[in-house]
Design goal:
mainly alpha, Growth Hormone, Chain: A, 2 domains, 0% strand, globular, Major facilitator superfamily (MFS) profile domain-containing protein, MFS, MFS_trans_sf
């Protein structure tokens, strides 16, 4: 097997293409992709979509919930944001340990069932406190899905097909966001008539409770779909018998790759969150668009450009990796970060019309979907017994950076640097600063990513059979 060259990054495995590497490396999937593997990806896509529907449908029921419990916008904001997000983030690390210790099928099943039961509890809540606790449990249950899904898919796909597979299931975030508005709107429209009479088992409920109950019952039923995935064996500890010591050694040996990967992609996430949080305000405040028009435009961009970007980025990186470019994952998004810094920096500072801003945002939304590619290279580089914890740590960091840094940086730049109510220059500066810094980090880490990927596809590195 060819070694990684000093220049970087292209290797030519003896005997043919990268699929032979996959067949040798027991820790990464199979020699070829079967219809069953794609069926599992489709099922996971449905579960990710369901998760986002459960997560976001509350935003359509603000006024009915406020009326039921007599709460103000501040407490409603807690239900929509921190109640879910804090427990989702807190739960990431322990859920990563669970993923490493127990079979992914059962881990996903119990996670989906748990958050679906918590969603049902949201529908049965009789007070603000009960609804708050139920929302926290929804966040905790959903924390298991992403690291468990990545780990499961990594066992079904060879390395050169993994970025596309994980990108497809990651696109469920975009599908779920759109579906939450469509399905939620339909359910809410019908909920008043449904709630007029007592429901079987649940009794008399209000219209907003019907939405939660319907989503929760659907989730309990859909959880069983994960058992169509093939069984796997879990050793319950590291294959070399060193447990956490082995994890610590892996982190030390790959520290430059992990630091550049974690920080680079986290800054891309912060860049994305910041623009997404404040672009609607920019369009309404500076260009006079109404909230319905803004919502429709941005939803259309998210569904078309966002989903297309996930699929394209995964396909393109897999194609480069299959040709022997072992640094393909970080190299691609280093170039994307630089491109977005330029496009966003100039586009939002010079964009004179709402149409120009939306088009600029659409181009960026197509380029920037990174989670599938970022997750894929972690699965390739990480031994199977550590994937859950490494993935969970990355998920925790990039979501925290996105939530905490992205929107606040735009506000800081607008208030403290530009001292203007026009958010365009602040968003432009955010794109330029975060995009260029992310590009530098990912470019610096690409050689280390190539070395980590080389070790990850080396059959002598880890022997694990799914």
């Amino acid at each position: 097997m060819g070694a990684c060259t000093r220049a970087g990054t292209r290797t030519k495995p003896r005997g043919g293409r990268m699929s032979r590497l996959a067949s040798a490396a027991g820790g990464i999937g199979a020699t070829r992709v079967t219809w069953r593997a794609w069926m599992v990806v489709f099922i996971l896509l449905l579960l990710v979509t369901l998760a986002f529907i459960d997560r976001m449908s509350i935003s359509l029921m603000v006024d009915p919930i406020k009326a039921s419990f007599g709460i103000d916008d501040f407490r409603m904001g807690i239900l929509q944001g921190p109640a879910f997000a804090v427990f989702f983030l807190i739960g990431s690390l322990p859920m990563g340990w669970i993923v490493d210790r127990y079979p992914a099928r059962w881990t996903i099943y119990f996670g989906v069932t748990a958050w679906s039961l918590a969603t049902i509890a949201c529908g049965l809540a009789g007070s603000f406190t009960e609804l708050l606790i139920a929302r926290c449990l929804v966040g905790l249950g959903e924390a298991v899905l992403q690291p468990a899904s990545w780990s499961l898919v990594a066992r079904l796909f060879p390395p050169q097909r993994l970025a596309l597979a994980i990108s497809v299931l990651s696109s469920g975030a975009q599908v779920g966001a759109a579906a939450s508005y469509v399905m939620g709107g339909v359910l809410i429209a019908q909920a008043t008539a449904i709630a007029a009479d007592p429901l079987p088992v649940f009794g008399q409920v209000e219209s907003w409770q019907v939405v939660f109950l319907a989503c929760g019952v659907l989730g309990v039923a859909m959880a069983f779909l994960i058992f169509t995935a093939p069984r796997e064996r879990k050793a319950g500890a590291s294959s070399d018998g060193t447990g956490n010591a082995g994890l610590g050694r892996f982190i030390r040996d790959n520290r430059v790759f992990l630091v550049c990967h974690f920080l680079g992609f986290s800054l891309l996430c912060a860049m994305t969150y910041g623009a997404a949080a404040w672009l609607p305000t920019l369009l309404m405040r500076s260009h006079g668009l109404d909230v319905r028009t803004v919502g429709t435009l941005l939803a259309a961009v998210a569904v078309t450009a966002g989903i297309g970007g996930f699929v394209f980025n995964g396909w393109w990186v897999d194609r480069a990796f299959a040709r022997g470019r072992k640094d393909a994952h970080l190299r691609h998004f280093a170039l994307v970060g630089a491109a977005v810094a330029i496009i966003g920096g100039f586009g939002f500072s010079l964009g004179a019309t709402a149409v120009a801003l939306v088009l600029c945002f659409a181009v960026i939304q197509f380029l920037q979907p990174f989670s599938g590619v970022a997750g894929a290279v972690l699965q390739i580089a990480t031994p199977p017994e550590y994937r859950g914890r490494i993935s969970a740590a990355f998920i925790l960091l990039y979501n925290s950076a996105g939530i905490a840094l992205g929107p606040s940086l735009v506000v800081f730049l607008s208030d403290r640097v530009f001292a203007s109510s026009d958010l365009g220059p602040a968003i432009a500066a955010s794109y330029a600063l975060l995009g260029s810094t992310a590009a530098a980090l990912l470019w610096a880490g690409r050689r280390h990513a190539a070395a980590a990927a080389q070790r990850g596809t080396d059959p002598a590195t880890h022997q694990d059979s799914p």
